[in-house]
Design goal:
Layout lengths: L6 H13 L4 H9 L16 H26 L3 E12 H7 L5 E8 L4 E6 L1 H11 L15 H22 L6 E8 L13 E11 L2 E10 H4 L8 H25 L5 E4 L7 H5 L17 E5 L2 E11 L2 E9 L8
Antiparallel strand pairs: 1-5, 2-3, 2-4, 3-6, 5-6, 7-8, 8-9, 9-10
Pfam family, one: FliMN_C
Main location: other
Keywords: Bacterial flagellum, Cell membrane, Cell projection, Chemotaxis, Cilium, Flagellar rotation, Flagellum, Membrane
Amino acid sequence: MADVLSQGEIDSLLSALSTGEMDADELKKEETEKKIKTYDFKRALRFSKDQIRSLSRIHENFARLLTTYFSAQLRTFVQISVASVDQLPYDEFIRSIPKMTLLNVFEAYPLEGRLLMEVNPNIGYAMMDRLLGGKGTSINKVDNLTEIETKIMTQLFQSMLETFQSAWESVIELDPNMEDIEVNPQFLQMVSPNETVVVISLSTTIGETTGMINICLPHVVLEEILPKLSVHQWMQTKKKDRDEHEVEQLEHTVKAAPLTVQAVLGNSEISIEEFLQLNSGDVIELDQSIEDSLLVKTGGEPKYYGQPGQWKKNMAVQITDEIKEGDTNE
């Protein structure tokens, strides 16, 4: 789209044309010349700006969910946010990350292919130190992880994938599962070197330790769901489906909540002295006649009127009327 000129720029242009500083014929000649735009086939832009914006929104939600999860699990200050979303060749991404790092290879059914989450060793060890009761200090020894450390890291990253699943559920129901942990990116060849990938970089702070978490999503893996990343479809259809699902889930949860129901036979006031002298067999007179309806409370609030009775040899209360707002005798 052509640049929009301000009113001041328009006035300056007209002034230059009127004084002869600029030649209108020369401007027309420049416009008719063929314009050439350089295109690098090794850096093919296979994701549209619309899709990049959708991926950015998904992972902003992912960053918020991770911040909440790790704040509770690690019991320390955690701040995670999206730093950048770029598309570049896979080979360029591999060359941009450290030679020794934490590479989490995972699958996300029903997507076909493997995805990658690269975690800076400083961040990974700070997380593990906090989980083991430490202060969250980071010691980079990624080249010789012990079996126990590898197991802890695997469980930690699997929990991150559960959050990843929640962030993506507005677009597609994924079932991510850890496949392997690698430390040397040179030994990891998920796709061809020239394959376009989207790299979402998350700026991460754990306590006093900072680093990056990079998520690598190959185009060949996301290709079948790219239409779903359209803002129009995502905001219209998926948002509606998501809202309906959330309402249904909320209704199910509320209906299953326990609720205390009380039938009040009546009230009575006695002195402390009379209370202390009560014995078995004494009768307390209530302020309600046996012919009056009982007040039925739900959750401590007056809700119905009822009458006492019996149901299959059990004491019961039959609801006779609903209390309207402002209709209670209390």
